[in-house]
Design brief:
The chain has 16 helices and 14 strands. By secondary structure, the chain is of the alpha+beta class. Helix 1 packs antiparallel against helix 2, helix 2 crosses helix 3 and helix 13 crosses helix 15.
Length: about 475
Amino acid sequence: MTPREKRIAILEMHKHAVSVRAIAKALDASPNTVRRVIRSGDPERPAMKRESQLAEHIERVRELHVACKGNLVRVHEKLAASAVAVAYTTLTTFCREQKIGVVEKVPAGKYHFKPGVEMQHDTSPHRVTVGGVARLLQCASVVLPHSRVILAQCYPVFTRFYCKAFLTEAITFFGGATETCMVDNANVIVAHGTGKDAVMAPEMVAFGQRFGMTFVTRMPGDPNRSAHVERQFDTIENNFYPGRTFADLADLNCQLRTWCETKNAKHRADLHAAPMTLFAAELPYLKPLPRWIPDVENVEERRVDVERYVRLHTNCYSAPPALIGQNVEVHETLRRIRIFHRHKMVAEHVALEPGANKRSTLPEHRREHGASRAPAPISPEEATLVAAGPEFVAMIAFLRTKYHGNAQRAVRRLHTLFLDYPTPVLRAVLVDAVAHRAHDLGQIDRLVLQRVGATVFRLPIPKDEP
């Protein structure tokens, strides 16, 4: 018999005029105890009232709690320094009784979701070892709260491009979209505001209209509203990652999708069925997929560098060499990189992982080792010099060995000398210049002037006088 039941029995027997001694004997209690219960008339046992040692220091405790930012260990040390010596457990009990730093507990709510009404989406940063390197990835997850079907994938970052790509994959995986998609207030879908005042980004509103779906956010401080999707992140961290190895990000996502499919088909005791069994009944309530679902694209403008590559997310993708120095459009999808020039696709690559610092070179853009480049077209000036004689051909070849890619400028100056001076004199100077390995056209110009001057301005030889 509990103390409360014994007190009730004492009071009931006293109402029927049973003596104190008889009650004490029947209930195996002392007469004094029976008399105290009869005097109180309360079946509940009175609480023991003991004033705490810190009662007179309550204001000091409140001040220290604020100054120490809620750290009761520091509060206990400060009290000891102030000659208030109490046990640490005494301090914590006193703070609980006086509601100092105690957050009032609120009972958890429960939400019931009809089929096809809502899906919950959120992301969580996870530290995962991929390819032997620990990396921080963003895990994105979508859950149908009615049937508890889940799909999750990991990304290096989570921008609106990756968000649209993931939601498109999830909706295709489910075979339809729900009326609403509940997201977190800090999600990339939200432009500004929280809860009912949240305003979605126009880009994401247009994306939702593609599938007939609207985005909503939960009220701040109501974590139960997104409990289904939040709970799955803990399961992924503690059930999926441990004991598995991943060669790269694509391998991780492939294994994660298989794990989700296995989890969806597994019987759950709380649901009394497998999520896929419940999903079979929910599927007719989903909004059907549109007839055509375009790939989610991110369009960037780039310039082809001198090595015939365009750079995107630290990776390089080859383009036709003829476009070197030209501006092109790079269309990025989750799995493909397409390069367009004047609305025409000129190259298509398999997308490399962002931040990998790798190169993708198509076979048609690869120059064979040791193969020489196509010879540059001969300019009209060079054609004129070549026709003028072998001396000019030898000089042009010598200039190319000296100036390489800048030889055309020297060829044009040589053509100017050809037009300004007599050809026989210039031809003779070029023979000497090639023989002595002289490539300075300014020096050649002076040599030609000396020879031309010696011929034109030579003084006549005086005749001998008789």
